[in-house]
Write a structure and sequence with these properties.
Layout lengths: L1 E3 L8 E9 L5 H11 L6 H22 L8 E9 L2 E8 L6 H6 L13 H8 L2 E6 L5 E11 L3 E2 L6 E2 L1
Parallel strand pairs: 1-6
Antiparallel strand pairs: 2-3, 3-4, 4-6, 5-6, 7-8
Length: 163
């Protein structure tokens, strides 16, 4: 968990949505859109971790969930920012998949392998990851990253507030 120094500068809640096609060429558009959402004082390290998790989740949706679906199949992405955490949701139309069970059965990834590390990376970055089937026959990948807010503390030996 990462601490944030200026909680008063964060909105209590902000949400943004994006719909893209199931095409790896859309990755730049997704990441540009996400970067535009960055709000100070969310630490850049937290933001970059979330950006990496978003990129992994998006590419997994295309390469695995939408592997046999047309390229114009939509992928919906939602980002919700709160004063103490960030949520990323990625909806795909692939078949149901039990990510938790898959994750449990995976050996340590080969560092020379071109793939196979995305889900483990998401679990390492996020405070919560889930992949559930929704009533509209889609799957929702939820990635949650928490960060604590520093309280303002008065130092009795100084005229300045310490953070």
């Amino acid at each position: 968990m990462t601490n944030v120094k200026s909680p008063d500068k964060l909105p209590k809640y902000h949400e943004s949505d994006l719909r893209v096609h199931s095409d790896l060429g859309e990755n730049d558009r997704v990441l540009s859109w996400f970067e535009e959402l960055h709000q100070a004082p969310i630490p850049k390290t937290v933001w970059l971790q979330c950006e990496l998790a978003l990129a992994e989740g998006f590419t997994n949706a295309i390469r695995h969930a939408h592997k046999y679906l047309p390229r114009d199949t939509p992928i919906d992405i939602e980002v919700r920012m709160y004063s103490n955490h960030l949520e990323i949701r990625i909806w795909d139309y692939g078949p149901p998949f039990d990510m938790t069970e898959w994750f449990k059965g995976q050996p340590e990834p080969d560092i020379f392998s071109p793939g196979g590390r995305g889900i483990k990376l998401m679990y390492a970055i996020a405070d919560h990851v889930s992949y559930t089937r929704t009533s509209d026959r889609r799957n929702c990948l939820l990635i949650v990253k928490n960060y604590w807010l520093y309280p303002q503390v008065k130092n009795e030996n100084s005229d300045f507030d310490k953070v």
